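Exercise 7.
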Amino acid sequence: MAISSFSFPTTILFGPGAVERLPGELDKKGARKPLLVADRGLVGTPVLARVHALIPHAALFTSVDPNPIEQNVADGVEFYRAMGCDAVVGLGGGSPIDAAKAIRLKVTHPLPLAEYDDLVDGWQKITADLPPFVAIPTTAGTGSEVGRSTVITLASTNRKTVIFSPFLIPSPAIVDPELTASMPAHITAGTGMDALTHNVEAYVSRGYHPLCDAIAFAGAKLANDNLPVVMSEPDNIEARGNMLLASMMGAIAFQKGLGATHSLAHPLSSECGMHHGTANAVLLPWVLEFNREAAQQSMTALELHLDCADLANRVRELNEICRIKPRLRDYHVARELLPALAEKAIQDGCHLLNPRAVTVEDLLLLYERAY
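Solution. The predicted structure, written as tokens, is:
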């Protein structure tokens, strides 16, 4: 048996009201002027007001796109320095937390973001010389609050680029289900299917990580059981908490690897503006069917665990419960873009651990099936 390296993430403060611990956590780190990174969607909401009231001395930065771009990061670094900040707090879904990670990185790391791309082993250039960072999720999807990576669309390639390092993990993550209760239904749906996709793809991927397998197996069950509940009972805090757990478990598990679903989804966001979780939801059933022969054992295990006869059809059922339209054309993706999207998707590293190897022709076929 080969030698493998396993690592697990950060301190997590979890439960209703956990956000009230934020001032004390910053005090422990000696932070006096944090940069509070959110996105425009949180401006004017009770959630942002509640958190900012806890740290009124924070400098608020909200210039983050729904799929964060390199310019957001540059603007955030400039604002951090202009305001004399000494720590970063990321508040929101995966986009502001990912942007906050990249801002934090660039405060002390001068190379262009492209130099830190995971595909070129950029992690070797990232050191522990980073300001303190606290992450507070308001969605249950990406699990970025416990993840080692940030995904930023670079200006030079217009490609979603994964930057990865254990040093990027927030510490601590403050995970309070009360902050997710006011999410709009379509965000609950898209982010919830994102969490399911992370767990399912991690479990069936070709990476070797039995610890992550166990976490993904349990996380898929939590998402499967609790997403229908939060869709019908938005104020159910227990189910909201379980979805946050599923989200974190997916992010922990996908250090093992993901798959073709994510390679296909990333260009739909950067090129077509499609919500990442929604893109995953639309594509996942088709990728599961494509992978069936190569991932028979793991998919059968998930079907038994989720008490469903067919995993791809169960994903379709959940999409219907979430009112996620099933076809790419429903999101105004132009058919003539599919070949260019497939060329982008093959450049994305997530498919490298897909249980069945893919070509650009395979990816185009999957787009066409989902269209």
